[in-house]
Design a protein that fits this description.
Layout (H helix, E strand, L loop, with lengths): L1 E2 L2 E2 L7 H15 L5 H17 L5 H16 L3 E5 L1 H6 L1 H10 L3 E4 L6 H13 L5 E2 L7 E2 L9 E2 L9 E3 L5 H9 L3 E5 L6 H5 L2 E3 L3 H15 L5 H6 L2 H12 L4
Parallel strand pairs: 3-4, 3-8, 4-5, 8-9, 9-10
Antiparallel strand pairs: 1-2, 6-7
Helix pairs in contact: 1-2, 3-9, 3-11, 5-9
């Protein structure tokens, strides 16, 4: 396996995890990932160990509910930050197509350079209209400070459902207060984001995204409302915690 010029022996016991790291470091060097994003990934890795570095049954249930909610939604938006753009650009574009969703670049540490780099990365994988770049992000999320508030009036601002993988708790809370349905991917079931969102997929984004694309494709055109209605995020998070504590 190979990224950023460093080869990782495929038989290394932690090859997958090392490869994911290298993708992020490569993304950092290419101006997609913020230095803080590398630290956030480290926190994710620790939780990934605790869930056994696999997509649990509990995560699968959340993935199905997330796909259903995206398909039901009238104006879904996928919010993309540097880590997500570095780790799964292909799946972001595939999910946007499968769920008829818009894509918006939305950064915690916002710079126009990074926004443009992320937009180009997504376009390389086939994205057409990438929202939220530069002056396009002219609307404001109430309750947040300065640059962290900015969103695209055609994207997150008017969306009914926002998919915000690897998001910060404050911003998730602000989106929920705006009345949005919020779906996230977060390996830490105790994070504020995990608790605030209506659907939390406790899984590594590199495993969750391909599964989510798959679920959106296979549920397309089917009656999915019951899947969303029956999903209980609190219960699901409790189950994830139980797995982490070794109960399952
Ligand atoms: P919160 O603000 O929600 O309380 P936090 O401040 O601990 O959380 P942030 O940096 O704001 O963390 O958000 C990033 C979240 O993404 C963290 O909970 C981290 O565990 C999680 N995370 C990082 N990398 C991954 C990954 N590859 N897959 C899934 N989750 C990840
Ligand atoms: Mg945070």
């Amino acid at each position: 396996m190979h990224a950023s010029g460093i080869s990782i022996p495929p038989d290394h016991p932690r090859a997958k995890s090392l490869y994911t790291r290298e993708m992020l470091v490569d993304g950092f060097r290419r101006g997609l990932v913020a230095p803080e994003g590398l630290i956030a990934h480290g926190r994710g890795e620790a939780y990934d160990y605790l869930v056994g570095e696999r997509t649990t049954k509990t995560a699968q249930r959340a993935i199905k509910a997330a796909a259903a909610a995206l398909l039901l939604s009238k104006q879904p938006v996928i919010s993309v930050n540097g880590n997500t753009a570095a780790l799964c650009p292909k799946e972001i574009v595939e999910l946007a197509q499968a769920a008829n969703a818009a894509i918006e670049v939305n950064l915690f540490y916002r710079t126009e350079e990074r926004e443009i780099a992320i937009k180009s990365q997504l376009e390389k994988y086939g994205a057409k209209d990438v929202l939220g770049v530069g002056a396009m992000a002219s609307a404001r999320i109430p309750e947040l400070q300065s640059e962290r508030r900015r969103v695209d009036p055609e994207g997150i601002y008017k969306a009914d459902t926002v998919f915000v993988p690897l998001e910060d708790g404050d911003r998730t809370e602000a989106l929920v207060k705006m009345g949005k349905t919020v779906i996230t991917v977060d390996l830490n079931p105790l994070s504020r984001t995990a608790k605030m969102a209506q659907i939390t997929i406790v899984d590594n984004i590199v495993r969750a995204m391909p599964a989510l694309v798959q679920a959106a494709r296979s549920l397309n055109g089917k009656p999915v409302k019951k899947i969303v209605d029956d999903f209980d995020n609190k219960r699901n998070l409790k189950e994830s915690l139980k797995i982490i504590r070794g109960g399952i």
